[in-house]
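Please check this.
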Amino acid sequence: MLLALLVITGLAGTITSTSISSKERKFVASSLKDTRSDVLASLKGLSNHQLEFKASPDKWSIKECAYHIAISEKNLWDLLQAALKQPANPEKRSEIKWTDEQLIKVMEDRTNKVKTQPAFESVNTPYKTVEEALVAFKAERADHIKYIKGTTEDLRNHVVQMPFGWLDCYQLCLMISSYSNRHMQQIEEVKADPNFPSR
């Protein structure tokens, strides 16, 4: 009887009031899809010579960028999942200093360079080839898009501390998307170098 009432009133299977809004859900899902496409397009058709090219000894190659993108996807998502296993901590929301828009802008702004943590460095990844890294990236991103489309978890009230400040878990999803955009831009910078090999 109760189930029938829920179906009739349209409440069965709906997203709960504590989960993200449909607008937020659509935005981050689209962002995850778009940045995935951009990364894959940026890496398409490159030779090993091009993948290995470095503009200078202290700059990353495209291969290193690809490894970094793939491991960042996994590590940041692991961080999100670990945060969601803890009790919601909405009292920490007052510690968040970033709006969603500010976070995306900062993440995608390549004028602000920051040294990555050891766990995110290309030399510490398990990948042996760019193809292997891309397989991992595509599988992870597909899972993340599927998750964000259907989750009812309270992403806004699970708050996690990052090296640069506090974020809620919805913002962490935005960070994952914009972070891959950041390093797709880095790949394009390498390709724009005047000494970049033609093939």
